[in-house]
Amino acid sequence: MTETHVTLGQVAARAGVSKATASKVFNERADVAPETRTRVAAAADELGYVPAVRPPAPGTTQVWVVFDRLANAYSATVLDGLLAEAQIRDAIVIVNEFGNVEDNRLAPGAPAWIRQAQARGAQAFILVTNPLSDDHVAACARRGTPLIVVDPVAAAPEGVMSVGATNWMGGVQATEHLLSLGHTRLAYVGGEPTSTPANERLAGFRSAIETAGLDPNAAVVVPGTFDYDDGLGCTTLLRAADRPTAIFAASDAVALGVLEAARQVGMRVPEDLSVVGFDDTFAAHAASPQLTTVRQPLTQMGRMAMQAAVEGARDGARVSPPVQLATSLVVRGSTARPQGHTDRRIPDPL
After folding, report:
1. 165-224 pLDDT, tens digit each
2. CA distance 158 to 180
3. Torsions phi, psi of 129, nearest 5?
4. What is the pLDDT of residues 261-270, one digit of tens each?
5. Is 208 contained in some domain?
6. Considering the domain boundaries, does residue 334 fall inside one?
7. Do 274 and 315 lie in a common domain?
8. Nearest to 65 by CA among 1, 125, 115
9. HTH lacI-type domain: which residues (predicted)?
C-alpha cells in the first residue's frame, strides 16, 4: 500500500482508536492522552500516512529548526545567525530541541516528527549537530521540503545540504600556534569519538604534530562530548609528572572547563598551561583569561543555512554540495610560551 492511499481511518484502526481521536492528534488537540498520541503517530509512521498540510501565512516561509542542545554558547551563536537571516527574509522560525521521549521515532528531528511538522505547515527544516539518515531525506522528499544540516555529526546523506567549517584546518591552526610557542607536550580534550567534526579537528591536531617532527601518537587524547565537564575532568591529567603544557580543547565549553580544572590544581593560565578552544563563542571573550580559540563563523553558518532553507522552500528544493566556511585562529590571553613546567608535579590540594 502506498502512502497516497492511506486514510485517516486506516491510521485510527491501526492505532485502535476512533477516527475522531486520530483527527485530534493531527490537529494538536490537548484532550488526548500522551500514550494515545504516541500510538497514533507511530501508526501513521508505519503506514506512511501524510496529513493535509496547513497553508502558511501569505508571503512567509515556515522553517523548523532542531538543535541537539540549546543550553550552550555554540547553539546560541548559531541561532543568532538563523534569526537574523530569518528576519530579513520574512521567515517564521520554530525552534525545537532534540529531547528524550518515550518513543524516539517522535523526537524532534526524527523522520516521523518531520512528517508531523509538514502537516502543521513546515516548509523547510534545519537540523543543527543532529544525526541524519536516508529516512530523513525520504521524509522531506515526499513533499520536496528542503533539509539543511549545520555541523553534521557524520557525512550528510545525498540530497541534504550541509553547512560546516574547515575543522581539519582549524585543528592544524590551533596546534601550530602551540608548537610555535615551544610546547611539545600536547593534549586534545573533549572531542566526541563519533563526531565527524571532532575527528577532523583531532586529525588536524595530529597532522600538525607530525609535520613538526614529533610523534603524534605521544600526544594525549581525552575523548568527551564537547562539554564543560570534559575539561573539568582534567585535574588528574594536570597533576601528572609528565603533564601536558598545552591543551587543545574540542570546543570553547571544554576549554572553559580546562581553565577551571587548572585553577583547582593551582596552575596559572597561561604561565603554567596554555589552552586553545574551538568555536569563538561569546564565552571565549568572557573567560579569564580571555580564550585563544579557533573561530568558526557560527553566525554566518546560521545565516547561510536559513538562506538555503528559505530559497529552497520558495524556489524548489535543490541538491547543493557541502559548504565549508574557513576557520581562523584568534590569539588572546590563554596561550604563552611554556615556563617552569619541565618536571614539576602539581600537588593534591590539602
Report:
1. 999 999 999 999 999 999 999 999 999 999 999 999 999 999 999 999 999 999 999 999
2. 40
3. 50, 40
4. 999 999 999 9
5. yes
6. no
7. no
8. 125
9. 6-51
